[in-house]
């Protein structure tokens, strides 16, 4: 991902249908200023990528240093990361790209970055596809949080994969 990617990132972050699935709260638009702030902030602690298909940008993803204190507190001294992704071009949903992206980011995280644990966070029950792509790559349930009434979903899931399980599954 580079500073040339703002048009695509702005398009995906102003599509209410994409944001319905990617955000836990009711967000229908991020302004261009907010988009720059979000991605510039994340990139300080993450490898951020554009997902391409048919030579076109179709989505974005990152492998980020874990930023949730409640997870870090449980694994002192461990290198914990998290994966997030959005396929912003809806014509490309359901074609196996999400599953491939998770596989590639996971390989990058464990084999290149030598992470100890990788997490998938903010997976909501109204987005079964996001849970399934993590499961396909060997991730397991780490935590299930019941959401307060009035929120968009009923549960928020956190999934994880350890280095040991990754290399065992791979062999
Ligand atoms: C969720 C998302 C990442 C999934 O990626 P995708 O490329 O569409 O999914 P894939 O084609 O790789 O599908 C992988 C698996 O999930 C299943 N799946 C995908 N979407 C699904 C859905 N809406 N309901 C149930 N299962 C679904 C597929 O059937 C497939 O399982 P299978 O191989 O056992 O048949 C993508 O649709 C997306 O980016 N959506 C909008 C933003 C978003 O939700 N981001 C994730 C936030 S956590």
Please render the helix and strand layout as text.
Elements: H1 6-12, H2 16-22, H3 32-43, E1 46-53, E2 56-65, H4 69-72, E3 80-87, H5 97-112, E4 117-124, H6 128-136, E5 140-146, E6 155-162, H7 163-170
Parallel strand pairs: 3-4
Antiparallel strand pairs: 1-2, 2-3, 4-6, 5-6
Helix pairs in contact: 5-6
The chain binds coenzyme A.
Notes on the protein architecture:
The chain is of the alpha+beta class. It has one domain (3-170): Gcn5-related N-acetyltransferase (GNAT) (Aminopeptidase, 3-Layer(aba) Sandwich). It is built from seven helices and six strands, in the order αααββαβαβαββα. It has a six-stranded mixed beta sheet with strand order 1-2-3-4-6-5, with helices on both faces. A hairpin with a 2-residue loop joins strand 1 and strand 2 (56-65). It starts with 5 loop residues before the first helix and ends with a helix. Residues 18, 21-22, 85-87, 93-99, 122-123, 127-130, 132-133 line the site of coenzyme A. Coenzyme A binds next to helix 2, strand 3, helix 5, strand 4 and helix 6. This is GNAT family N-acetyltransferase. Residues 1-162 form the N-acetyltransferase domain.
CATH homologous superfamily (4th level) name: Gcn5-related N-acetyltransferase (GNAT)
Architecture (CATH level 2) name: 3-Layer(aba) Sandwich
Q: What is the number of independent domains?
A: 1
Oligomer: single chain
Total count of helical runs of at least 4 residues: 7
pLDDT < 50 stretches: none
Output the CATH class name: Alpha Beta
What best-fitting shape do the alpha-carbon axes yield?
Answer: globular
């Amino acid at each position: 991902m580079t500073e040339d990617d703002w048009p695509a990132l702005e398009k995906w972050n102003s599509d209410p249908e994409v944001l319905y699935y990617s955000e836990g709260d009711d967000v229908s638009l991020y302004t261009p200023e907010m988009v720059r702030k979000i991605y510039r902030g994340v990139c300080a602690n993450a490898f951020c990528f554009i997902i391409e298909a048919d030579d076109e940008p179709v989505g974005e993803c990152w492998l980020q240093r874990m930023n949730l204190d409640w997870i870090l507190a449980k694994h002192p001294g461990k290198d914990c990361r998290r994966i997030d992704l959005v396929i912003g071009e809806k014509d490309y949903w359901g074609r196996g790209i999400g599953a491939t992206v998770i596989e590639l980011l996971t390989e990058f995280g464990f084999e290149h970055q030598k992470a100890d644990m990788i997490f998938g966070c903010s997976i909501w029950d109204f987005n079964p596809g996001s849970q399934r792509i993590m499961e396909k790559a060997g991730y397991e349930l780490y935590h299930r949080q019941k959401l307060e009434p009035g929120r968009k979903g009923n549960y928020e899931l956190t999934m994880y994969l350890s280095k040991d399980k990754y290399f065992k599954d791979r062999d």
